[in-house]
Amino acid sequence: MGLTYSYDIHLRPENVARALKEATKPAPPERRVPPLTVTLPGGEQVVLPFTCGFRSEPVDCAGRDRVSLETSLMFPADEAVRAYAEEGGLPVEDGRVQIGYVYLDMSFPALGDPRYVCLDFWAATSRMSRLFEDSAAIGKVFTDLAEASGAVGCLFDKGDGGPERVLWGTAPD
Fold it and tell me: Which superkingdom (predicted)?
């Protein structure tokens, strides 16, 4: 198995809908898939330009520990993203690059702590994992997402059992 680097955003359950709406902002402007309706454990619904199991059938998160989505996100073309795009033949559109699928696992609760939910955005390939580590612009997208969502923290995780690197955070109450 290859590298699976990720950005983990930890937040209170009442902020999940806001975080998911914020996560749609770096999505490509045109939808290539039908919208996906996600019903969160508290009953709130969010419509997303993503898929679940590569389908757009409604998803109910109630009673589930984990829900996995496939996102398509565009990132600012800093030096690392631009090199990734050139190597993969990907176009730069309005200064941004769509790098491929970024998987999103939502864990209810995060690491067994019922006070938090974790949104884990992870790279689909080893090459993309290295890009996640090398690109300051990608890191900023996720730390900005954490801040805009009212999260308590954003961590970078190499998935190797080592400690996660704290990128952004507030003191939890």
Answer: Bacteria
